Amino acid sequence: MPADTTNKIKPQLKTFDLTMVVAGLVIGMGIFRAPAEVAQKAVTPMIFFLAWATGALVSFIGGITFAEIGSRYPAAGGFYKILSHCYHPCFAFMVNWVVILSNAGAMAAVAIMGAEYIAPVLLPHMQQQTAITGITVASIAVLYLLNMRGYKTSSKLLNGLMFVKLGMLTLLIAAVFIVKGPVNEHVVHEQSAGDMFSAFLMCFIPVFFTYGGYQQTMNFGKDVADARKTMPRAIFYGITIILLVYLSVNYSFYKVLGFGGLAKSSTIAADITGMMMGPVAYKFVAVTMFLSVMAYVNVGLMSNPRVYFAMVEDKVLPPIFKRINSKTQVQEFALTVFCAFIFVTLFFLSSFQKILEHVMFFDSIGFMTAAASIFILRAKKEGEGNDVYKIWGYPILPVIFILVYLGVNISVFYANPTAAISGFVLFVAGAPLYYLAKFAVARTKPEAEPI
Length: 451
What we know:
By secondary structure, the protein is mostly helical.
């Protein structure tokens, strides 16, 4: 069977399908952990909710911005293809190189989150950090082996665990009507006399980590029927669902745990459920949350290797990254490389917060440059005359979106200069890596198709 199937993709996704994809890409596991990070940085409840509301507004602006980008230039591997088309293949490689590292970091951060839930239940007598690291590594290894067996196996696992995750979110929102509130509410007053704007800016790192993911819908350009109409509608519907869920669940967290309790909790779902139903429920939810986290990591292992397709087509990666096992439909080499990046991230950055800062530095670069491509596409009149979707509020809204993510970038530098500097070095390193890869691919003999 031929390995290259990109030219045989038939549009099958309709509005409802893509709406669910958008919601699934964004409503990951960050909402079960990031609110605690936001509360720690926010100083006051007012800044806490303002940060989440700002994230909602910016995500909507980003959603419709990427809707026009995807509408004007729908393509498989859209994120790489659009940057290559609008800027230069080298620059596209540089951005996607750090995005690949960012995605691996995000998977590592989420896996740590799941381990934080299960470690006290599974290994109560072991030193906490050692238990969390061991469980994280073992979990990713198991998911890697499951994905190597084929997409059918991994998709079945995903379907079951997605149902669990949505059920848990519903339960946490309902808690606001069941639990009367914290026994000892205490508001965090640390640095309360400090710079409020600085605290607000620092909240951007965990908030936008939780809201990220919708931009990946551009990668489904050739999978969507009537993409120029379907993509903007689906992104609008999907973002609306996400905003309602996030704002509701954060209000519930605040009312049930109190601001101080929320800031101290690294296992929010288990803590709230324990207050509702007791210690047995706490353990049950800890296990359930661990499984839900693994669902999110699993979908990341399924989707991220597909990004390599477009990079192979531009001859900046060897054909082996594109090769598919004809029996399992798995890009075995690409999946292995992606998992290796995850393990490397875990080795050098073991804490959730450190990984979060590196991820958001990389992500902010990708978001800003991808969003700026809308100006180039409009200047070239790309897609004009084909019923292209156009964002209202142009050019003000895209500029606002870019400036906010510039603020995220600055926040990382302020919080962790080392992360920002190392991230910038890795980004710049993508340029020589691009030409080295091009040279290596040019010298590679064409491979025989896999059997």
